[in-house]
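Quick one: structure tokens for this chain, please?
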Amino acid sequence: MSSYQGVIVSDPWLQSQFTQVELRTLKSKFLSVRTQNGRVTGGDLPPVFAKLKAFSEMFNEDEIKTILGESNNDMGEEIDFEAFLRAFLDLQGRATAKSGGSKSSFLKATTTTVHHAINESEKASYVAHINSYLAEDKFLKNFLPIDPATNALFDLAKNGVLLCKLINVAVPGTIDERAINTKKVLNPWERNENHTLCLNSAKAIGCTVVNIGTQDLVEGRPHLVLGLISQIIKIQLLADLNLKKTPQLVELVDDSNDVEELLGLPPEKVLLKWMNFHLKKVGYEKQVTNFSSDLKDGEAYAYLLNALAPEHSTPSTLDTKDPTERANMVLQQAEKLDCKRYLTPKDIVEGSPNLNLAFVAQIFQHRNGLTTDSKKMSFAEMMTDDAQTSREERCFRLWINSLGVAMYVNNLFEDVRNGWVLLEVLDKISPGSVNWKHANKPPIKMPFKKVENCNQVIKIGKELNFSLVNVAGNDVVQGNKKLILAFLWQLMRFSMLQLLKNLRSHSQGKEITDADILNWANNKVKKAGRTSQMDSFKDKNLSNGIFFLELLSAVEPRVVNWSLVTKGETDEDKKLNATYIISVARKLGCSIFLLPEDVIEINMIFFTRSYGNKQAIVNTAENGVILTLVNQKMMLTLTASIMYWSLQQQVAESEDGEVPDESCVSPKEGENETALAGEVSSLAIDDSVSDTALSPHVKNEEIPKDNGSEEQSPKIEEKDGNE
């Protein structure tokens, strides 16, 4: 598959100045100009570079033209891609000089060069983690243990198997291991498949991978590989730092308001809150605010372990005056709790933030010291969302973070209430739509400032033809979960359809509808000689997974191993197929955030009838109008993601083998051209917001008009075009 090949530059030095993500982004720009004009000249570059965010704040188009003209006497002469890259670097150097920084520091922030250094202590700790957790893996045990003193870690990561396995350790079941290519010798295509599966799965568990491409992993670039491993391990270690997994955490707070605050904290902050809770109980007077300088002297660790494991405590830990000696005693005490050694005494004394966080998380996992107050725990369970809302929150949160917004979203419902994140997302999917002069940047203390942001969010939504009825910015500020989820679905559906519209050059501006996606999928499967068809995105037969596997096979015949596919007749078989579908789609290049439950789940939609001023749930046996529907929005986004990938291949083929990898291009301010409407992840979010669509077998008059169920928002009407 051509789209998986890295962008190759004949000059090794020139190639070393960019990551593969950056090369693909710039290649897409270059090809866009060439497609439009038939060739690329020096005179074409100023308007292209002026739209790049890196330069737009430093130069206008005329200034760029002057700078490029200094090194190019004939701006009308045709240039190749390497000349395009050199012009970019030249302008980049000027921008750095103008900003007062050094070229090396600028490159360190934006490209992959020799300036990147790795932390050997962190590397050794992550190697120890891998050696411990993957020691019994059937494939990897022949390559383990890894020697941290060598580059064996980066060499082993080059085929993608290690990283995929590590993701499954962090969040079990994320990847169907049947989809991983595990032959002893993998060809380049198979290696890239593994890395594509890895990166899309990493995004699906919350990793930030916007600066990493498959070719970077194939080459085993140390700082990128280590950075990804660090994120994966961190997610594993912090997995229990929430009320759903550990309801005992409610002991850290006193009242309901504090519980709401706890729900909105990122796991690192919860860990600090837990640590300070125990330190306060044993009389430690300082407040630990970070995992670095506040832990350097080892005193906080000594007090914490004395509180959690008094049977292993010794006064000498606090009596010693040497921080290194105290750190060593702390680690010895922790080992008695079976805590793995993620760091050395030197790491504690030097204040290594990543390793200290890992160590504190290990202590929490082995002994959290919290009680099981039944009243508080039952209250905490009431505060957490139901399973469906939790899945919806997870999907939207991961999708937003995958867009590369500046503010990382830890808790969707809390983090969007000030409107800033939603404005960032709107600016990503509809560049230029946000008036930043009227936006208020966090931290925002005044409530009316939050309302101003959210009012602009709603205003833009209406301009994008979202169906918003009686919705005001204050609804978002108040954290109305149903309205937030429904608004985000429309936001993502808009992004999804825009991406498809931009790729379908033959559409000539025609809007893409749900029906277009449905017809495309059915035609694709039919042309491949398969018999499956879907009547609509709410076709309950889709839950067995066969249609989607046939669709994946139709767009890339070799990607599905049919010997692994079940008939999907039982719930267990359906789940096996669903798990395989998700991994195969990610392996192909689709960035999706679905869970197997989202694929196989049947939505039971309860309708209410009004009796005077009262409403009652319609009983199945008595009234017979409870409908069994698959989640049509999830089916729509999955199909659209596959369609987007397939159309990308057609674009690549139309460029005579050149690859404008739109999936890796980030939208820039004021730009709305092909490939800049968003990342491929924009297609992938499953919205599990309950669907208002009705089964074709139920007549309209059978459904009460004043539906008061949770399946229909009273304030937001959602347009699902394929009714």
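The first strand starts at residue 602 and ends at 605.
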